[in-house]
Design a protein that fits this description.
Order of helices and strands: EEHHHEEHEEEH
Largest sheet: 5 strands, mixed
Structural class: alpha+beta
Helix content: 55-70%
Length: 247
């Protein structure tokens, strides 16, 4: 028989009594915070490993023009985002004071007596107890000489309700993904427009510079021809020697 031990919660450091050596958090909120913290650490590690690749990719993208047709709706990306949304939904606690939609619902019956009746009614309505591995109990009773017994129940929503809510969530994911693609496409089109305008401006500047150089050369040649003609006329008139000295 496993003995109960008291250890601090890894998130809030509150003492908790448990028989499971693997239990690290005292509540669902701390469990979710610890889970998100581990996810962030993993994301940071992955980001560090791929930083060099990302920088090279960004450098390459800055010198190449993407085709607008690349920004199309990808079903694989959409399903991946839906799976992430589903995981968040299934691990989110929905309460009367937290503005979050989740598969787990917190109920607070007014008394211990009404808790059993409420629990029965919720089960009849399709609500289900949490998995045994969940850090939350299906029913929690905390006795206090001041406030009396505080009863809290945590139940999973009926499967039909979860499916209906997930359908709405998936629709929001699709709309957000499409809006993101539209914004990226608009930004890429604008970038390409600016690239084309810059190229045209450079071409005009180069053409103008070449035309100026050509005109300068023509003027030099005209001045040289005019000087040669004048020199020939002066020599012919006897006012200038062939070596260019005054006659």
């Amino acid at each position: 028989m496993a003995l109960s031990v008291v250890r601090p919660c890894v998130v809030c450091n509150a003492p908790m009594q448990t028989k499971r050596s693997s239990k690290q958090t005292c509540s669902h909120r701390c469990y979710m915070q610890h889970h998100r913290s581990k996810q962030r650490e993993q994301e940071i590690a992955t980001s560090i490993k791929s930083e060099e690749i990302t920088q090279r990719g960004n450098a390459l993208m800055s010198t190449q023009t993407q085709a607008p047709m690349l920004f199309v709706f990808q079903e694989s990306e959409y399903h991946s985002r839906c799976n992430e949304a589903k995981v968040r939904y299934e691990n989110t606690l929905e309460t009367s004071v937290i503005a979050a939609q989740g598969a787990i619902v917190e109920f607070t019956p007014s008394s211990v007596e009404s808790a059993f009746e409420d629990y029965h009614n919720y089960r009849v309505a399709g609500y289900a107890p949490l998995d045994s591995a969940s850090p939350l109990p299906s029913i929690s009773v905390i006795s206090s000489p001041v406030t009396g017994a505080l009863v809290t129940m945590y139940l999973l929503k009926p499967e039909a309700m979860q499916r209906a809510e997930l359908e709405i969530i998936y629709a929001d994911v699709r709309a957000e993904y499409q809006e993101e693609l539209d914004r990226e496409l608009e930004a890429e089109v604008e970038r390409q427009v600016q690239l084309v305008l810059a190229q045209q401006e450079r071409a005009r500047e180069q053409a103008a510079a070449q035309e100026r150089q050509q005109r300068e050369q023509e003027v030099r040649e005209e001045l040289a021809a005019s000087r040669a003609k004048l020199r020939a006329e002066l020599i012919e008139a006897g006012k200038l020697n062939p070596d260019g000295s005054a006659a």
